[in-house]
């Protein structure tokens, strides 16, 4: 019995990767400080973009249709920023962590990163579709595509990059979660 236990213990140690808890804790701390900075900057930029939409509606819009579009779009950036901020803020805890909790934080970060980019892809795609529809409506009403076509083309690039990043992260998620799980 004792011999079997020693064999089992050796196999367990050979098959279980060692985790440098100090290094893992530093990685998580660095990750959380980056997330805080990102969350606050997104919140500020979302607010600035929403204010810009309102200012554009009040001072730069040339027709009632443009004013309505700007005013309808103005809550989207700050709303998305608030959602992303609340998602990140849930993980802000100051405590000592066990190895399991540190690995859970890393696992949750990977899942939240994919969720964030999926939501980004949806919002950016929806905004692009609104711009595309606006371009068509403005062309029908005024016969000019000048300002709207450029915005639609530029945002098409943003949509492409966002969708690419989301698909890239989604594809790598399973492997990243398995790597984290292998450390337990």
Can you tell me about this structure?
There is one protein chain. This protein has helices spanning 2-15, 21-60, 64-73, 75-89, 99-142, 146-182. The longest helix has 44 residues, at 99-142. It is 87% helix and 0% strand. The chain is elongated. The protein is mainly α and 184 residues long. It has 6 helices and no strands. The chain has one domain. Keywords: Membrane, Transmembrane, Transmembrane helix.
Strand/helix succession: HHHHHH
Supply the number of structural domains: 1
The counted number of beta strands is 0
Amino-to-carboxy terminus distance: 27 Å
Largest sheet: none
The number of helical segments is 6
Flag low-confidence runs.
none
Helix proportion:
over 70%
Assembly of the depicted chains: single chain
What do the pLDDT scores average to? Answer: 80
Query: What fraction strand?
Result: under 5%
Tell the overall outline.
elongated
The helix-and-strand class reads mainly alpha
Output the radius of gyration.
Answer: 24 Å
Keywords: Membrane, Transmembrane, Transmembrane helix
Transmembrane segments: 43-62, 68-87, 116-141, 147-167
């Amino acid at each position: 019995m004792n011999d079997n236990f020693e064999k089992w213990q050796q196999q367990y140690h050979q098959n279980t990767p060692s985790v440098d808890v100090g290094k893992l804790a530093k990685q998580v701390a660095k990750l959380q400080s980056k997330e805080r900075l990102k969350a606050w900057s997104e919140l500020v930029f979302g607010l600035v973009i929403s204010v810009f939409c309102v200012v554009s509606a009040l001072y730069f819009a040339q027709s009632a249709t443009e004013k309505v579009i700007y005013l309808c779009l103005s809550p989207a950036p700050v709303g998305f920023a608030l959602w992303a901020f609340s998602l990140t803020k849930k993980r802000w805890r100051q405590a000592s962590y066990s190895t399991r909790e540190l690995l859970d934080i890393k696992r949750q970060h990977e899942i939240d990163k994919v969720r964030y980019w999926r939501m980004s892809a949806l919002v950016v795609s929806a905004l692009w579709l609104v711009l595309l529809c606006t371009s068509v409506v403005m062309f029908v009403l005024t016969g000019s595509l000048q300002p709207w076509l450029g915005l639609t083309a530029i945002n098409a690039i943003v949509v492409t990059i966002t969708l690419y990043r989301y698909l890239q992260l989604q594809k790598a998620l399973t492997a990243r979660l398995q790597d984290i799980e292998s450390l337990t």
